């Protein structure tokens, strides 16, 4: 197996995660468990990973499809189990794609291809949680 990341304890509930590609991120817990709120929680990072993975897919597909995208935002909502381990049980992705004369059909296709075929994080998480998605297109030409 290849080493992809290292997580190192800093202090209290603060950790620095370093990736094999040379990037670092601070993760921390809330004050009630000894954290200082210096960074996102590890479970929030899971959702950021999902959002980032699918955003790359959608943008690549839309750009290859000749769409004039000016902005792409994925709003991620989630529900967690009440008992430990508090895994995500439901995750919803709302895509907001802004641009000029965008094809709603092409946006829908890009979102579906990401969800059903390309997004590795999505495919992994759907084994544990119900994943749903929807989208909206904002046309700046109007």
Q: How do the helices and strands line up, and which of them pair or pack?
A:
Layout: E1 5-11, E2 14-19, E3 24-27, H1 42-64, E4 68-80, E5 88-100, H2 104-118, H3 120-125, E6 130-139
Parallel strand pairs: 5-6
Antiparallel strand pairs: 1-2, 2-3, 4-5
Helix pairs in contact: 1-2
Give an overview in words.
α1 packs across α2 (104-118). A 3-stranded antiparallel beta sheet has the order 1-2-3, with no helix packed on it. The chain has a 3-stranded mixed beta sheet with strand order 4-5-6, covered by helices on one side. The chain is an alpha+beta fold and 142 residues long. The protein is elongated and about 50 Å long. The longest helix is centred in the middle third of the chain and has 23 residues, at 42-64. The chain has helices at residues 42-64, 104-118, 120-125, and strands spanning 5-11, 14-19, 24-27, 68-80, 88-100, 130-139. InterPro entries: KH_dom-like_a/b (IPR015946), OsmC/Ohr_fam (IPR003718), OsmC/Ohrsf (IPR036102). This is Peroxiredoxin. It comes from Thiomicrospira aerophila AL3.
The first-to-last residue Cα distance is 51 Å
**What percent of residues adopt helix (DSSP H or I)?**
25-40%
Q: Average pLDDT, to the nearest integer?
A: 96
Shape: elongated
Radius of gyration: 17 Å
Compressed to H and E, one letter per element, the order equals: EEEHEEHHE
Strand percent estimate? 35-45%
CATH homology superfamily of the largest domain: K homology (KH) domain
Number of helices: 3
Based on helices, strands and strand pairing, what is the structural class?
alpha+beta
Task: Report on the biggest sheet.
Answer: 3 strands, antiparallel
Enter the CATH topology name of the largest domain.
GMP Synthetase, Chain A, domain 3
Low-confidence stretches: none
Strand order of the largest sheet: 1-2-3
CATH architecture of the largest domain: 2-Layer Sandwich
CATH class of the largest domain equals Alpha Beta
Number of domains: 2
